[in-house]
Amino acid sequence: MSIPAVDVLTFGEAMLSLQTDGPLGAGGTARTTVAGAEFNVAVGVARLGHRVSWTGRTGRDEPARVILRTLRGEGVETSHATTDPEAPTGAMLRERRVADLARVHYWRSGSAASRQRPEDLAPALEAGARILHVTGITCALGDGPLAAVRAAAAYAAEHGWTVSLDVNHRTRLWSQEAAAAALRPLLPYVDVVIASDDELPLLSTEPGTVSAGGEADLIAELFAAGIGEVVVKRGADGADLHLPGAAPVRAAARPVPVTDTVGAGDAFCAGYLSGLIDALDPEARLRRATTTAAFAVASDGDWEGLPHRDELALLDVTPGSAIR
């Protein structure tokens, strides 16, 4: 059996990101960076010491050069990323509006990533991976990206990879009904579902409703569809891991000062995928996920504060300590 080229293959829209320190209308100073759900996951997994390939589509412009340079600098393989000469790289503005409340604005319509097609992924899929990680955000970008996700998931399942789906519902991109109609057909290919508790109903055969059995029935329905692991993110209340025929595994959120919650879900996914690659037991991989999420919550930026493998134990040190 050939050795896969990478541990994790992922793709999706990476964007130029402007982040203000106050209301935009009042002239808040902006910091320029890059971000995107799969971008964040790719960086997080790479920092934890794994081989990662990001195969998104960008424009032929300066933001694209910054995105690719940043990924390569973080050790992420980008040789199968594609360029669209006729469409721009997308952009987003994250505005710190009041206290710790952030408001996000997107410029994604007609972007290069919205024009990604299944054929763009062929070289990366043929190179192989252990895990394919996809998100609902990419599915929301248009018919082409949705077809690319479906084709990649089908290919990965056929070739024995683990397929991970982070529901990652964004109400500004599509409705619950549209998300449910697009995501539900992916389930036959998916091994691991990662979702917040309010996203689980999107994967139900009756989206938007919760039966008398509540969340337990939704999870049982996913198991019946062939899902092997259901990970439920609960924010400050930690996370649960559900496995067929076993009691739920629970992990508390790591107590850290909250600086910026954007990107915490992506950090969680990166930690969980790292635990799968390292074949950690359920408790340990869930604990790694909550730990990487805590790094994101306690740091400015979507991905900048994510830990390297040798930094995972930093949260065990007494708060306020100086490591000398």
Extended strand count: 14
Largest sheet: 8 strands, mixed
Sequence of strands across the biggest β-sheet? 4-1-9-10-11-12-13-14
Number of helices, counting only DSSP H or I runs of 4 residues or more: 9
Helix percentage: 25-40%
Please identify the structural class as seen in this structure: alpha/beta
How is this structure best described in words?
With 324 residues, the chain is an alpha/beta fold. 30% of the residues lie in helices and 22% in strands. It has helices at 37-47, 62-73, 122-127, 136-139, 143-158, 176-183, 215-224, 264-277, 282-297, and strands at 6-10, 15-20, 30-35, 52-54, 57-59, 82-84, 91-98, 101-107, 129-135, 162-166, 192-196, 229-233, 239-242, 249-251. Strands 4-1-9-10-11-12-13-14 form an eight-stranded mixed β-sheet, with helices on both faces. Helix 1 (37-47) packs across helix 8 (264-277) and helix 8 packs antiparallel against helix 9 (282-297). The longest helix has 16 residues, at 143-158. The chain starts with 5 loop residues before the first strand and ends in a 27-residue tail after the last helix. The model has no long low-confidence stretch (mean pLDDT 93).
Helix-strand layout with pairing:
Layout: E1 6-10, E2 15-20, E3 30-35, H1 37-47, E4 52-54, E5 57-59, H2 62-73, E6 82-84, E7 91-98, E8 101-107, H3 122-127, E9 129-135, H4 136-139, H5 143-158, E10 162-166, H6 176-183, E11 192-196, H7 215-224, E12 229-233, E13 239-242, E14 249-251, H8 264-277, H9 282-297
Parallel strand pairs: 1-4, 1-9, 2-7, 5-6, 9-10, 10-11, 11-12
Antiparallel strand pairs: 2-3, 7-8, 12-13, 13-14
Helix pairs in contact: 1-8, 8-9
